[in-house]
Amino acid sequence: MSDYLLETRNLELAYGPFKAVAGVDLKVRAGTIHTVIGPNGAGKTSLFHCLTGERQATAGKILFNDRDIIRKPSHGRVALGMARSFQLTSLFQNLSVRENLRLAAQGRDGLGALNFWRSVEHKRSHWNTADQVLERLKLTARAETLAGELSHGQQRVLEVGMSICAKPTLLMLDEPTSGMGIDDIPVMTDLISDLGRDHTVLLIEHNMSIVMSISQRITVMSHGQILVEGTPEQVRNDERVRTAYLGEAA
Amino acid sequence: MSNKTALPMGLGRTPALLLLVLASLVALPLILPSATLATEILIFALAALACNLLLGYTGLLSFGQGIFFGVGAYGAALLMIHLKWGMLGALFGAAVFGAFLALLVGALAIRRTGIYFVMLTLAFSQMAYFLAYTLSGWTGGDNGLLDVPRPNIEIAGHVLVDLADPRHFYVFVAVLFLLIFAGALRVIRSPFGSTLLAIRENETRAAAIGYDTRHFKILVFMLSGAITGIAGALYAMLLHFAPLSNIDLMMSENILIMTIVGGTGSLFGSLLGAGAIVVLGDVLSELWPRWLMLLGAILILVVVFMRGGLWGGLAALGKRLLASRTADDKAPAKTKETL
Question: Which residues of B touch A162 (CB under 8 A)?
């Protein structure tokens, strides 16, 4: 058993001759908040798609708990303990906030959810999980509101909250602050560092203040490859990163 | 949608909804001129309810419903004619045929989503029609399958219920309808049913939280096929005849129109939709042979102005009445205050 919860070996995602991910060896240590950053087009989202199963990697390996999951479809990765959030909010808009979370908790049952002769009330544990997550997201007061009627900031919080309902070991969050107002960002930062206490978090993020304040480990990508990996301190002081990314932002 | 609008008078709850269905089943033959017309409504309400499970609860627009209706009609008729199966056996057979055909169509069609899914069901529908037309030795082709029996319910040769009487047959179909309605209600409030809603709302997210959506879609397709098959069998028994039009694309269209007019996402809406279209057809076809044009106009009106269908319209009306009544109750108090 290695120290790494998630490990990719020479991972590659090619679109014809173009390699969006060109041989990435990413190592995510259990119990850390590990962030992937990089300028636009660096291959962060493509890497994320390979990890979630949304895209089939064209070469390499993805080891999760030392098991190669590269051929697992995205729904199959949930039962192993992987969960994700979306960059563009992707909720069940016309269902209540509580039902959104309950469905996410039920998802871990896999085909057990094909049960059509029992009432949903029967599985108390899913409701309890939904209620606990509501508390944690501070959305209890909005439990019966339709997800589509929440404010944008609250929808982003729910988006992240959906991913913890299946009690995953690895949380993969795709730009959780995307589109959020400046006032809402501290809420999200607090939430992610709170979740980092119970889960290993793999974060893709643009917002540098979040990245530097909550990550234990940072991987910088550029042109589909890993440029630098290290602690926030090391990354901040790295000359190559400055030119590739920070220089551009400054 | 059912979850979107809180319904007045607790009609969202199971016992109240079942009471409403029961009351409608008792009222139908009393207000309609014939038991046969009432039976026809229930048969199409079953087909619309099955279509609603796909369209309203899973977001699948299927033009294949006529296949399952037709296969149920032919299947039950052939079992009764050639193998001398009884009423319940024939209905069971029709359900199995319907589910099996739905498995075949569904397994291929759900590999695609959106417009491609719709086109695939349409293509299957066309194939089924011409297959039925070609296999005239079994189906009677253009002439339809004649002399379909309507067996009595018997135990060991002893007649329990004589179904030759149209009123008896109505009661039989009504009991069946109530059972299937209650069953469908249970299904949509199960983990499976709640997952269907999730798929309707956002299939990508449903997959991301762990659901293999194909299994859910195939299962609901089979369920829909089985219920539609039963409806087809009952229709053949009602007419004593299984016409080729049962398996026509037009049948799929009719079932879809009833579902949409009644209201997608509400099972009771399917009964309303079937009732409205069957009665309208019955009345208008005597007045004007081109009545189908009016049907088109009605569909346009519902889609443009009443997105929730008849059920949504009635629910909104009921809410407004309740609101105005409470407003009336408060109004005198207010004037007192101002005095």
Answer: 205, 209
